[in-house]
Design brief:
This protein is α+β, with helices and mostly antiparallel strands and 363 residues long. The protein has a single domain (4-357), classed as Chorismate synthase, AroC fold. It contains 8 helices and 18 strands. The protein has a 5-stranded antiparallel beta sheet with strand order 1-2-3-7-4, with helices on one face. The protein has a 5-stranded antiparallel beta sheet with strand order 9-8-10-16-11. A hairpin with a 4-residue loop joins β1 and β2. The longest helix is centred in the C-terminal third of the chain and has 27 residues, at 331-357. The structure holds flavin mononucleotide. Residues 56, 105-106, 125-127, 239-241, 301-303, 326-327, 330, 333-334, 337 line the site of flavin mononucleotide (FMN).
């Protein structure tokens, strides 16, 4: 339950951190799309552990195998199944966590709900599951690129270090230039030092990721329950370690009056445009043709390499020393995951829009 996402472009994710591997099945992918493993691998390489000294040292190459749905380099329109095998699992590092609950992790709630859990690497609650989302998101991204829709996420804030306002839409190379995935070089080097400082202290830091989408046409989004921003919020808050979501002016916008906050319409080059974009590219739950942008907050990594108070499965108070290989900050690796989920939401809405509004001619 709860492992499938999307209505027309539907994905089902499976696998645990220290099990055989992680996989995804996509149902509803359009046929005749040119697709090969390298389209998927390039996105998985951005997510994989062991990329730099500010991410977890777990050494996984995360090589994808496509098992079905493609023939002669083109999608068949049949289910696409993809698999990434786990190679560098070290379950013994988690022995203590079999009995003791990690503070602010999923151990207590999984145990209470299911009465049985795989404690190795956090089992299903591990961010390793997001391999499934990134692999499926790579397919969605490729389809969106034919519509000239470009999804770009980057780290905007780590702890209290924030990029300056008003950055241009960055190219992918600018985001990938720093291991932090912050495209502003000065802030990026300060962020890197802050993450290393936390790592040295056996601690962790959080922050926020800004996601921007350009090239969106007017009309994607399905009110009332499937507003575009509602589905984006669900996709973001469905990621591990997320604690907040805001679109457009978000919480800051509430400090303005309506007359200050409104995006005024104007006619530009024969198109209806807005002179500002506090709406964040979405009005009434439907894209309005402006840049879509939203922020997602990620908490500091729960597993810290320090002794903390907790309770064991028998309900007795005890202490737990965090062990294993962990990200001192999850944000750099979360960037491709945010992009993947955004692409999945947008493609699903594109397909729904074309199915409902552009398929029939009643004249
Ligand atoms: C890219 C990424 C990497 C993560 N790495 C770790 C990690 O190394 N250690 C850890 O304790 N949590 C890590 N997390 C977060 C946990 O998976 C998450 O906190 C846990 O499942 C509990 O869920 P919750 O924080 O949403 O309540 C990571 C999250 C993401 C998005």
């Amino acid at each position: 339950m709860g492992n499938s996402f999307g209505k027309l472009f539907n994905i089902s994710s499976w696998g645990e951190s220290h099990g055989g591997g992680i996989g995804v099945t996509i149902d509803g992918c359009p046929p005749r799309l040119p697709l090969c493993e390298s389209d998927i691998q390039k996105e998985l390489d951005r997510r994989r552990p062991g990329q730099s000294k500010i991410t977890t040292p777990r050494d996984e190459s995360d090589q994808v195998e496509i098992l079905s749905g493609i023939f002669d380099g083109l999608t068949l329109g049949t289910p696409i199944a993809m698999l990434v095998r786990n190679k560098d699992a070290r379950p013994q590092a988690y022995d203590e966590m079999k009995e003791k609950f990690r503070p602010s992790h999923a151990d207590f709630t999984y145990q209470s709900k299911y009465g049985h859990r795989n404690h190795e690497g956090g089992g299903r609650s591990s961010a390793r599951e997001t391999i499934a989302r990134v692999a499926a998101g790579a397919v969605a991204k490729k389809i969106l690129s034919f519509k000239k829709v470009e999804v770009r996420a980057y780290v905007e804030r780590i702890h209290d270090l924030l990029v300056p306002n008003g950055l241009d839409f960055p190219c992918l190379d600018a985001v990938e230039a720093s291991p932090t995935r912050c495209p502003h070089p000065k802030t990026a080097s300060e962020m890197e030092a802050r993450i290393l400082e936390a790592k040295k202290a056996g601690d962790s830091v959080g922050g926020s990721i800004l996601c921007r989408v350009r090239g969106l046409p007017v009309g994607w989004g399905a009110p009332v329950f499937d507003r575009l921003e509602a589905d984006l919020a669900k996709s973001m808050l469905g990621l591990p370690a997320t604690k907040g979501f805001e679109v457009g002016s978000g919480f800051e916008g509430t400090f303005l009056k309506g007359s200050e906050h409104n995006d005024l319409f104007e006619s530009r080059e024969g198109k209806v445009r807005t002179s500002s974009n506090r709406s964040g590219g979405v009005q009434g739950g439907i894209s309005n043709g402006e840049e879509l942008y939203f922020r997602t907050a990620f908490k500091p990594t729960a597993t810290v390499l320090q002794k903390q108070q907790t309770v064991n499965q028998e309900g007795q108070e005890t202490e737990l020393m965090g062990r294993g290989r962990h990200d001192p900050c999850v944000l750099p690796r979360a960037v491709p995951i945010v992009e993947a989920m955004t692409a999945l939401v947008l493609l699903d809405h594109a397909m729904r829009h074309y199915a409902q509004c552009e398929s029939f001619d009643f004249s």
